């Protein structure tokens, strides 16, 4: 998976030598497989040992270790790195936990930032809380994906929620996060949480139960990625919707929603869901570690009531502990989109099907093998 970084390295290294010798260190510390060893980052290396100009080992340069992520073909960003805490490869994905000064601990899957300790509460509250607070009496929640545990944690904040089913395809992600993400320890130990390791489609199909809220906490659709079918109209219509109770609510993350990025998958996902449910709401929030706004789409066949006072009352009554990002007013305001985004949502005509998918930049392991 780090192939693209090696490629980026060889392209960028040469021009930068000419431009600015300081930056060479930055680029030269982009990950390669040989960097990907914890020992490499221990602070007590021999400071005079470096004969390799690509990998200085003194502290000054250590401060200049950078992680670089290719966001789009023509866009990458990077952030400084303290250390690589853990890294494993599963059958499906590459998983790593970084320690960074800006974001705290950062979970990477297939080289893409999934969430960061310092701002994941924004993403996870937005994904979970509006649906659970709009619903009149949510008791059962099904999470597609969510192996990290943060989505379950948010749902379990609701005192009246009786069961949270989390279905992730990748046991390695679940075990990795259970072991390493301290913020979710309590959630992982909550008796109301039921974890299945399976494809969410299979799991929903075979479920005899129906749910009050179904949450899509999936990776973005990615060429060769593991969750593309879970964004299609036929999946929503034939598999997901029949497993929602009558007044049930479905919500999914819907990728980047910024001025320059919303047409990749946000507007197609919104339009696809509009073909399946009667009432659909799109909303967004800026997530710093995502380097963009993030979009969500929430849907039901019952009218969706967004009332500031009612939402605030429900937060008071239902939630154990506190929300850090959302209150009634900010939930409502997150659904009020600027004209650029609002117009694009309404004008979108694309419906996502298996044959006619939409992807964001990058590709999963399956595409690399293929
Ligand atoms: C590193 O080199 C400097 C200067 O040559 C020397 O004074 C110092 O003792 C060396 N340190 C180590 C750890 O070898
Ligand atoms: C318009 O909305 C999008 C999505 O919420 C956001 O990313 C963007 O920053 C907004 N534009 C401005 C100028 O605020």
UniProtKB/TrEMBL annotation:
The EC number(s) this enzyme carries = 2.5.1.79
Is Cell wall biogenesis/degradation found in the keyword set?
A: no
Enzyme class label: transferase
Family of this protein: Belongs to the spermidine/spermine synthase family.
Reaction(s) catalysed (UniProt annotation): S-adenosyl 3-(methylsulfanyl)propylamine + spermidine = thermospermine + S-methyl-5'-thioadenosine + H(+)
What are the record keywords, sorted? Polyamine biosynthesis, Signal, Transferase
The residues forming the signal peptide are: 1-21
Q: Which residues form the active site?
A: 217
Q: Where is the PABS domain?
A: 64-301
* Annotated GO biological process: polyamine biosynthetic process
Taxonomic source organism? Ficus carica (Common fig)
Cross-referenced Pfam families, in alphabetical order? Spermine_synt_N (PF17284), Spermine_synth (PF01564)
Query: Coiled coil where?
Result: none
Q: Which InterPro entries match?
A: PABS (IPR030374), SAM-dependent_MTases_sf (IPR029063), Spermi_synthase (IPR001045), Spermidine_synt_N (IPR035246), Spermidine_synt_N_sf (IPR037163)
Q: Where is this region: Disordered?
A: 38-61
- NCBIfam families the UniProt entry points to: MFS_SpdSyn
An MF annotation (GO) of this entry: thermospermine synthase activity
Name of this chain's protein: thermospermine synthase
Q: Domain of life, per the record?
A: Eukaryota
Annotated HAMAP family: Spermidine_synth
